[in-house]
Amino acid sequence: MFNLRVGNSGSGFCDGISRRKMLRVGATGLFGGLTLPHLLNWEATAASPRKGPAKSLILLFLEGGPSTIDMWDMKPDAPKEVRGPYTQIPTSVPGTFVCEHLPNCAGIAHKYTILRSHSHTDNGHTTGYHYCLTGYRPNFPDGNNPVPNNELYPSIGSIVSRELGPLGSIPPYVNVPDPMAAGGPGFYGAEHAPFVIETDPVQPDFEVKDVNVLDSVSRRRSKTRQRLLAGIDRRKRPLAGRAGAMSKYYEKAQDLITSPAAKKAFDINSEPDSLRKKYGYTSLGQCALLARRLVEAGCRFVGVDHGSWDTHFTCFPSLENDLIPHADLAFSALVNDLDERGLLESTLVVMMGEMGRTPKVNNQAGRDHWSMAQSVLFAGGGIKPGQVIGATDKHASAPVADPVGVEDLLKTVLGQMGIDTGKTYYTPLGRPVPIVNGGKVVKELV
User: Fold this and answer.
1) Within a 10 A sphere around the Cβ of 139, how many other Cβ atoms?
2) Which of 90, 187, 307, 358 is the residue whose CA sits 20 to 30 A from 13?
3) Using CA atoms, how far apart are residues 319 and 67, in angstroms rounded to an integer?
4) Separation between Cα atoms, residue 188 and residue 34, nearest integer Å
5) Between β-strands 388-389 and 112-118, what pairing exists: parallel, antiparallel or unpaired?
6) Burial per residue of 301-315, b for 16 or more beta-carbon CB atoms within 10 angstroms, e otherwise
């Protein structure tokens, strides 16, 4: 289904274009005609993976650019126009400090690691997003906002889908609550596109329609349709090539629609209110909780897209009242919840954005784009916890040594999932595209 949203979502960027103010295709037709049968086509191309400590990956993507210097890499001795109005507090790791508005994360710093030296040179939202999720520089200017915008290069979620495949009836790659701007499959094809929830789990009437049979279609009518389709298939057999494959995928699509495991995984309302409050009744919090449910049910990659971090103007009220507390609750609750369920070691959690913010506060009491220094948080999945890796200069404007690039980050994260990042695939035109184009493993992390 086509879906054109024109309302004010409150998550627009500095170019005036909202993430929702664009033509989008619904979850059952996303990314070039993706339907449930196409979605289930992953099994045909999934490789046999080698083992890695992480079976699943949850990416909390703070779209717009979270401010490193106001959250994870504070500079209390810098001038006021650099350090901002917040103070730092100690964490559970001696000698490590974070922002005063991150008390929950401060209390579990021994369970995650902060990488303070992530750095690249793309200061655009859409171009930076593309670079961070694919590892390749885009061939379009910033502000080009189709979704997905990675028409050639596959996103990290699509790579995981292709290399690892599913663990059960749950799709291996899910986006929530919206499609990630650079989350498409590129030349991998629609079978490795994400299953997109397209509704926010914080809403009281949240449900995933694509795992429910329509009320207007009775069970008897549904079975009649299946018998008719089976009869057509029998008359045309033997089916070969894509036609034969699609017959199988239609069967699996039906399995997903009627799967008790899928219905259970997406039923966030079955969670106790006490746990939902720990995550926070916010979009980011409830998406993080849904992500935990999905990986618990066998999903390989959940990408959570969370906007509103493009804070050019009067940024501090929104940071301290909304953005930072939401991230504090969501990340800390997710890590604790996974840990208590025995899932943290097999689930890698990463929280980042496409860039950071300028060290100096601008004339509008905000911070502008700054990709040269950003902090990234890692938990679980075989990552060594309780560390601070890398350092920036006295104004958090650049790493003082050994910057970690996008390719390094992708090589490390995918390697933790047992994926051979040196593998090369070829585009339809015969162009070789390595899974990760260079880079090195961040050894301190693993």
Assistant:
1) 11
2) 187
3) 9
4) 13
5) parallel
6) bbbbbbbbbbbbeeb
CA–CA distance, 373 with 392 (Å, rounded to integer): 7
| Cα atoms found within 13 Å of the Cα of residue 26, Cβ hemisphere only | 10
Alpha-carbon distance 122 to 251, whole Å?
A: 44
- pLDDT exceeds cutoff 80 at 119: yes
Token pair of 338 as six digits: 């996974």
> Half-sphere exposure (CA, 13 Å, Cβ side) for 394?
4
Q: What is the rounded distance in angstroms from the CA atom of residue 287 to the CA atom of residue 296?
A: 14
DSSP 288-316: HHHHHHHHHTT-SEEEEEE------SSHH
**What tens digit of pLDDT does each residue of 274-289 get?**
999 999 999 999 999 9
Of 68, 6, 60, 1, the C-alpha closest to 30 is: 1
- Predicted TM-score of the model (pTM): 0.85
Query: CA-to-CA distance for 290 and 294, rounded, in angstroms?
Result: 6
User: Measuring CA to CA, which residue among 376, 437, 350, 434 is closest to residue 135?
Assistant: 437
